[in-house]
Amino acid sequence: MKVTVYSCREFDERELFVKYGKELGLELTLCPDAPDRGNLALAKGSECVDILTSKMTRELLAGLKENGVRYLVTRTIGYDHIDLAAAKELGITVANAPYGPHGVADYAVMMILMSIRKMKRIIERTNIQDYSLKGIQGRELKDLTVGVIGTGRIGETVLRNLSGFGCRLIAYDLFEKEGVRNYAEYVSLEEMWKRADVITLHAPLTEDNYHMIGEDSIARMKDGVVIVNTARGGLIDSQALIAGIESGKIGAAGLDVVEHEFGLYYYDRKSDVLDNRELAVLRGFPNVTVTHHMAFYTDDCVETVVRDSLAGCRLFLEGKENPWRVA
Ligand code: NAI
Q1: For residues 101 and 91, what is the distance between their CA atoms, to the nearest angstrom?
Q2: N or C: which end of the chain has fewer CB within 10 A?
Q3: Cβ distance 102 to 157 under 8 Å?
Q4: Catalytic annotation on 81?
Q5: Are residues 237 and 245 in contact, defined by beta-carbon separation less than 8 angstroms?
């Protein structure tokens, strides 16, 4: 039973692949690179292929098919990088490997706390032995109203996490969930903009909510509002965010995702001149914490996606029911 694994990271995934490959009785070909025309032949003889977020076009899928591949699993929750229509036509089953919501939910709470406690400024000062206090007085969560947009797996976990801090919790989602009412009051978006001191985003990016945080919504928010985004960059209009920070309307932001991050994040680009001006400006503000889309990145997440992506291959090869199949 053979599986070809692409984009296998040496420093955190390889050892786990060896461990779980052995446990599941799979023979693995581990390739550090993303699948491309030059290395598709590595999949020859493997019915299953395991990938990360690289774009799987019709052409690449057809190439895999020619090499005998019948099952493609992505070690991610999202699978919009795979041409599902082409996969279906070619008879390739597609699966994912979701990880739990806790890593991202913890991270969102950390971003909220870092923002309201002015942690970026504090760390910058201690690094240069500036132990003064002026300008770094924080606020306490118990005095604030936190608004959660998107109460799915992660949003609900954020609410549960925050319920111990004594803050008022409000939430907005297109579909309201009974369990969420144990922690938060569902409100309209209008009410969210009006009442929230902190807004944290946990909705997927869709055509309808593209730039939902923009000039108009920011104008309706409370002065000094804190915005945290661990969901998708396109939910926020970066230009409007920058204008809001410059005017002081927005008090702080914590951004694990930004618009146009593709091609930057997960690469070492320190010697390059980049063409993402918004990111450069946002990074420069003392009240904006920017991280490179890594809220998910925990021991638990890495182990889960490696283990479950291979477990799905094993089930597929045995012709058994597969809970990770998406198409
Ligand atoms: P989920 O599918 O469990 O929940 C999403 C929720 O958003 C659902 O309740 C849905 O009804 C709601 N929603 C959809 N459109 C909406 C809208 N226009 N307004 C308000 N609510 C809306 O998703 P999950 O797993 O909780 O993920 C949430 C977000 O976190 C996604 O954007 C995902 O891409 C992102 N994410 C970020 C990671 C990171 O490392 N920064 C890692 C994993 C996920």
Answers
A1: 31
A2: C
A3: yes
A4: no
A5: no
Q: Look up residue 160 and give its two tokens.
A: 């549960």
Residue 50 bridge partners (DSSP): 5, 73
Pairing between strand 71-74 and 48-51? parallel
Neighbours of 239 (CB within 10 A): 15
Instruction: Tell me the residue type at 122.
Output: I
Query: Left (φ > 0), alpha (ψ -120 to 50) or beta: where does 7 sit?
Result: left
| Mean pLDDT per 10-residue section of the chain, whose length is 327 residues | 97 98 98 96 97 94 97 93 96 97 98 98 98 98 98 98 98 98 98 98 95 98 98 97 98 97 90 96 98 97 98 97 95
- Catalytic residue, candidates 47, 156, 259, 261: 261
Task: Give the pLDDT confidence of 86-131 residue by residue, as tens digits.
Answer: 999 999 999 999 999 999 999 999 999 999 999 999 999 999 999 9
Q: What is the rounded end-to-end Cα distance, in angstroms, of the chain?
A: 22
Q: How far apart are CA 306 and CA 301, in angstroms?
A: 9
- 3 state SS of 256: coil
CA of 152 relative to ligand 1 center, distance in Å: 6
Tell me the residue type at 112. I
DSSP state of 213: B
Give the span between the Cα atoms of 215 and 229, in whole angstroms: 17
| Dihedral over alpha carbons 51, 57, 60, 64 (to 10 degrees) | 60
Residues forming beta bridges with residue 72, ordered by sequence position = 49, 94
Place of tokens 């057809």: 62
Q: pTM of this prediction?
A: 0.93
pLDDT of residue 246: 98
For ligand 1, atom 44, which residue shows the shortest CA distance?
231
Task: Write out residues with Cβ below 6 Å of ligand 1.
Answer: 77-78, 101, 104, 149-155, 172-175, 202-204, 206, 208-209, 230-232, 256-257, 293, 295-296
